[in-house]
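Hey, I was hoping to borrow your eyes for a little while. I'm sending you its amino acid sequence along with the C-alpha cells. Take your time with it, there's no hurry, and the full record follows here.
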Amino acid sequence: MHKIWLKILFSASIRPIFVIHLKMRVMKKYMILLFMSVFALTSNAQEKKAEINFETDVIDYGEIAHGADGLREFKFTNTGNAPLVINKAYSTCGCTVPTPPKDPIMPGDTGVIKVKYNTNLAGGPIRKTITVYTNASKEPYTLKIKGTLLPEKGALEKEQSGPINN
C-alpha cells in the first residue's frame, strides 16, 4: 500500500515540476524573441533621416508696385542627419512659380526655394500657398506669400479720364 501511495505522490509531485520547467523554457524563448523585437525597433528608430527647418513659412511682400521684381526666397536648413531632397514644389496658381533646389541638401547645410510672383497682373491682394514635398516627411510643408499688388500707374489715370469725369 505504501508503494502505491508513494507512486501516486511521486508521480503527482514530479509532473507539476516538469510542466513548470517546460513552461519556463517556453517563456525564456518568448522573452528572447521580445527582446530581439524591441532591439530591432529601436535600431530602426535611430536610422538616418532628413529634417527641414524653414526660417519663416510666410513671406509678406507688403505693398509691391506693378511690374516690380516679384522674386523672393524661402530659406531653410537641413537639421537632420541624412541628405534632404525636395521632390516637388508647386503653387495654388500659375502666377506664382516656386523653384526648389535640384541637388540634395546635406545635413547642416542651408538651401532656398525661390518663389517668383508675377507682378504684371491687375492690382489687388496677394494670397498664395506653395506646397513642398520632401523626403523628410510624408506630409507636405505649406509656405505662404501675401501682400498687396499696387495697380499699374496708367490704369488709375485711365479710370479717371472716362466720359463721366471729362
